[in-house]
Specification:
The protein has 177 residues and is α+β, with helices and mostly antiparallel strands. The chain has 1 helix and 11 strands. Strand 2 and strand 3 form a beta hairpin. The protein is rod-shaped, with a radius of gyration of 42 Å. The termini are far apart.
């Protein structure tokens, strides 16, 4: 028995439709970009320095802790103080009381000896209170700080008397380690 012509036509159309569908599907499969290799990290966790917990992440399965910045407090400060006017820094209060000696060579005179200057200072901190005499460049150590008189202003001039109220003292306060 022979197949009717219309059945042959229908079979031909079906074969062509399947072939077109296969061609479209093949074009779509080969035209999509390949998926990169997937990485699967283990589910362990780590505690970061800030107290939070993180899991592994990224292509290398690394632990990534959040970056935290801690505010830094200075360990060394320079302050200015005057007779009767205190300066406070790093937990210490410096109050110059009086100039004990000022034999510095005047700026407008040539001297053989540079002279010296010293000042009586009251130091107040959490450790207590004391009175000390400072000279420039000589550090004085307390329980928690090292205090150095860096400079005394104004510089003397020949024939000009510096009043106690005109003196400015520059101190460096440094926390002891």
């Amino acid at each position: 028995m022979r197949m009717p012509l219309w059945l042959w036509s229908l079979t031909g159309v079906a074969i062509i439709a399947v072939a077109l569908y296969a061609a479209v599907l093949a074009g779509w499969v080969f035209s999509t970009p390949p998926v990169p290799d997937s990485v699967f990290c283990t589910q362990d966790a780590m505690q970061c320095p800030d107290g939070s917990y993180v899991g592994r992440t990224g292509p290398n399965c690394e632990f990534v802790c959040p970056v935290t910045t801690t505010p830094t407090t200075p360990t060394q400060v320079t302050v200015e103080a005057q007779i009767g006017k205190s300066a406070t820094a790093l937990g210490v209060d410096i109050l110059p009381l009086e100039v004990v000696e000022d034999s510095r060579c005047p700026v407008d005179v040539q001297c053989v000896w540079a002279g010296r200057v010293s000042v009586s200072v009251r130091i107040h901190s959490a450790m207590g209170e004391s009175t000390m005499t400072f000279t420039p460049g000589t550090p004085v150590t307390t329980e928690a700080q090292t205090i150095t008189l860096l400079d005394v202003k104004p510089s003397p001039y020949a024939g000009v008397t510096i009043k106690q109220s005109q003196y400015v003292f520059i101190f460096q306060i440094e926390k002891r380690k």
